[in-house]
């Protein structure tokens, strides 16, 4: 897309479930030759991590007005607003639309939107449930943004995060890219055409959605576009078989073992993983000539000869090390049993029974999904192999993870 070459894009990401698409947008912009800076609302961090967006864009991600790394740049919001050629907010929630329409500068994102000079283009891609999109307040705010000169990408129709189906979905990446291309081409007829095409696509998708089985039902009935899936799997298997014959010089990242999530100085939440699978894989890969990095949780196993080992304890440490190592890896095999939950508060010292009485209540929070983030970061040519331990419906759950998390192979 020639219109994006050498363009400076400021991407705003808000707290919508559609934020999982933002790394894909960044990747498309970079592939098209654009430079990208990302600004997030605080709530967006619940749906996508700063680490992924920073790695893909190559720049520090702005989230808070008072982020320490920004303070040495003076009026950084003015500088960043003047730096960009256009600002795209995708997804944009009803809250952020209201903030910008009313001039409320209580987040870094809304502040940057209002700091844009009048010659800079603002493009907004709303994403919300149908009832919120159709609410008079939202529609009034949308009209206000249009009066200010903003371009609005019409939301798509389909299944929403609420489980309902209707108007409010953030459009697919190719639709957004086409809309931006038309805006930059400054052809009003193209913009009108884009809107019409979006409506037609929405109606078409809605008719498909109404007659389409859920993912789980489709798995059971073998209706998952079997020919396409089979071709993709054959390509991946052929690739893996080929490199299996010659691993010499290939960079392979392997994770192994459990993680320990600290409760206090003597207790932790863990699991039964021994790490033996990951260590055996690392040993065999090294013997085949691969350059192997092994990131291991706390286990009592000897490091295979010639393997670089990085020791971690918690899920957070595992996440940080994997993010650092993945970018320079050809293949990642994630066999570690990483905790899904970690205590909200880590107690210093030892929790005494006499202080807690008969019950100890622990508040847990979810950990970052390493494999999901790697699936978003994965570049052409990189291969990602995940492991999943299931207690039931192994095949359908495995299929779901394989497709939704963008892995090349799964071991269930």
Question: Which spans of ≥5 residues are poorly predicted at pLDDT below 50?
Answer: 187-195, 201-231
CATH homologous superfamily of the largest domain - what is it? Flavin prenyltransferase-like
**Rg computed from alpha carbons, rounded to a whole number of angstroms:** 24 Å
Separation of the first and last Cα atoms? 40 Å
Helix content: 40-55%
CATH class of the largest domain: Alpha Beta
- Give the integer mean of the pLDDT values: 84
Strand content: 15-25%
Number of strands: 17
Structural class: alpha/beta
The CATH architecture of the largest domain is 3-Layer(aba) Sandwich
Which sequence of strands runs across the widest sheet? 12-11-8-13-16-17
Largest sheet: 6 strands, parallel
Determine the number of helices (DSSP H or I, runs of at least 4 residues). Answer: 16
């Amino acid at each position: 897309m020639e219109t994006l070459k050498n363009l400076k894009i400021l991407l705003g990401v808000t707290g919508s479930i559609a934020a999982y698409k933002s790394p894909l947008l960044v990747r498309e912009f970079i592939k098209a030759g654009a430079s990208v800076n990302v600004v997030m609302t605080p709530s967006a961090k619940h749906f996508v991590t700063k680490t992924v967006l920073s790695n893909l864009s190559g720049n520090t991600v702005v989230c808070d007005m008072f982020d320490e790394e920004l303070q040495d740049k003076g009026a950084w919001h003015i500088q960043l607003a003047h730096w960009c050629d256009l600002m795209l907010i995708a997804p944009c929630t009803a809250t952020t639309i209201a903030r910008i329409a009313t001039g409320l500068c209580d987040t870094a994102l809304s502040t940057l939107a209002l700091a844009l000079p009048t010659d800079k283009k603002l493009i907004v891609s709303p994403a919300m449930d149908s009832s919120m999109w159709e609410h008079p307040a939202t529609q009034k705010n949308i009209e206000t943004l249009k009066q200010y000169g903003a371009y609005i990408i019409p939301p798509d129709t389909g299944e929403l995060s609420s489980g309902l189906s209707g108007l409010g979905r953030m459009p697919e990446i190719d639709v957004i890219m086409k809309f931006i291309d038309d805006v930059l081409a400054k052809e009003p007829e193209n913009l009108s055409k884009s809107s019409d095409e979006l409506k037609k696509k929405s109606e078409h998708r809605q008719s498909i959605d109404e007659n389409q089985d859920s993912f789980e039902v489709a798995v059971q009935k073998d209706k998952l576009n079997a020919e396409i899936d089979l071709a993709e799997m054959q390509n991946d298997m052929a690739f893996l078989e080929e490199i299996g014959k010659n691993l010499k010089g290939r960079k392979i990242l392997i994770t192994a073992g459990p993680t320990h999530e600290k409760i206090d100085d003597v207790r932790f939440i863990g699991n039964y993983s021994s790490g033996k699978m990951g260590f055996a894989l690392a040993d065999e890969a090294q013997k085949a000539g691969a350059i192997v990095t092994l990131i291991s949780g706390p286990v009592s196993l000897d490091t295979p000869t010639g393997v670089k080992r990085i020791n971690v304890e918690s899920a957070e440490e595992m996440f940080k090390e994997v993010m650092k190592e993945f970018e320079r890896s050809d293949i990642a095999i994630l066999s570690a049993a990483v905790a899904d939950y970690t205590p909200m508060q880590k107690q210093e010292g030892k929790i005494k029974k006499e202080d807690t009485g008969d019950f100890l209540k622990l508040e847990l929070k979810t950990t970052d999904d390493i494999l999901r983030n790697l699936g978003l970061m994965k570049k052409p040519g990189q291969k990602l192999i995940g492991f999943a331990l299931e207690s039931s419906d192994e095949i359908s759950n495995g299929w779901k993870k394989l497709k939704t998390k963008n892995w090349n192979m799964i071991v269930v």
